[in-house]
Write a structure and sequence with these properties.
The protein has a single domain (about 5-225), classed as Spore Coat Polysaccharide Biosynthesis Protein SpsA, Chain A (Alpha-Beta Complex), CATH 3.90.550. The strands form three sheets. A seven-stranded mixed sheet has the order 5-4-1-6-10-7-11, sandwiched between helices. With about 230 residues, the protein is of the alpha/beta class. Helix content is about 25%, strand content about 25%. It is globular and about 50 Å long. The chain contains six helices and eleven strands. Strand 2 and strand 3 form a beta hairpin. The structure holds cytidine-5'-triphosphate and magnesium ion. Catalyzes the formation of 4-diphosphocytidyl-2-C-methyl-D-erythritol from CTP and 2-C-methyl-D-erythritol 4-phosphate (MEP). This is 2-C-methyl-D-erythritol 4-phosphate cytidylyltransferase. GO terms for molecular function: 2-C-methyl-D-erythritol 4-phosphate cytidylyltransferase activity.
Length: about 230
């Protein structure tokens, strides 16, 4: 089965406190989103990349990559899940129901081809799919107010990254059925709610999401390390 990439890029980046959405901030000579899309395109794993962009976004049409023949633009939605569903719909008639879709945040520009291929190789024979994830190095506490009520067994807790890899038809149906549910903060949670148990694949710790101002310098550092 073929693989397609979906990139939600319609957020405003509130926590970044910048003058524009974080996907358009400069990083190592390009914008964040150009790094993200280049890494997906250059991996050679995908037929095309569907990108969800806000209808009010003045920055996207200015980028050359918006005209790339393997880049498809879709309108962004209110929440991340709405943006992902919109981008999936833009692949209608192109992607087969059983093709794989890898959903990857525009705000994760340090993704490596190594992780993309590891994920696809690990999950391509799985009936559901799964996500890149990281274990926690810190001891984890369950807290009520500011009181610790338990220490959580770390072997059962993983941090969800992207890409999140699922079958095209199954993911579209899951996101449609869970539309508007605020508990759906990633693709896996939509499938979990329907009773599926997606897999985890251990990813690289440099696949960070740019969320707060200090993350840009960290992304720059990781890119220099990768080069
Ligand atoms: N995203 C999206 N559509 C939305 C909200 C988010 O496509 N309605 C995208 C963002 O552009 C980002 C990814 O989802 O690439 C991960 O979301 P997050 O890191 O939360 O980005 P923002 O929502 O932009 O940031 P913030 O929550 O700080 O406002
Ligand atoms: Mg957000």
């Amino acid at each position: 089965h073929l693989c397609w990439a979906v990139v939600p890029a319609a957020g405003v980046g509130k926590r970044m406190l910048a003058d524009r959405p974080k996907q358009y901030l400069p990083l190592a000579g390009k914008t964040v989103i150009e790094h993200t899309l280049n890494r997906l395109l250059q991996s050679g794993a995908f037929q095309a990349v569907a990108v969800a962009i806000s209808l009010e976004d003045p920055y996207w049409p200015e980028l050359d990559i918006a005209k790339h023949p393997e880049v498809i633009t879709a309108p962004g939605g209110k929440e991340r899940a709405d943006s992902v569903l919109s981008a999936l719909k833009a692949l209608e008639g192109k992607a087969d129901e059983n093709d794989w879709v890898l959903v990857h945040d525009a705000a994760r520009p340090c993704l490596t081809a190594e992780d993309i291929h590891l994920q696809i190789d690990s999950l391509k024979n799985d009936p559901v799919g799964g996500i890149l994830a990281l274990s926690s190095h810190d001891t984890l506490k369950h807290v009520d107010g500011n009181s610790i009520t338990a220490t959580i067994d770390r072997k059962h807790v993983w941090r969800a990254l992207t890409p999140q890899m699922f079958k095209y038809g199954m993911l579209r149906d899951a996101l449609q059925q869970t539309e508007g549910n605020p508990a759906i903060t990633d693709e896996a949670s939509a499938l979990e709610l329907l009773g599926f148990q997606p897999k985890i694949v251990e990813g690289r710790p440099d696949n960070i999401k740019i969320t707060r101002p200090e993350d840009l310098a960290l992304a720059q550092f990781y890119m220099e390390q990768q080069a």
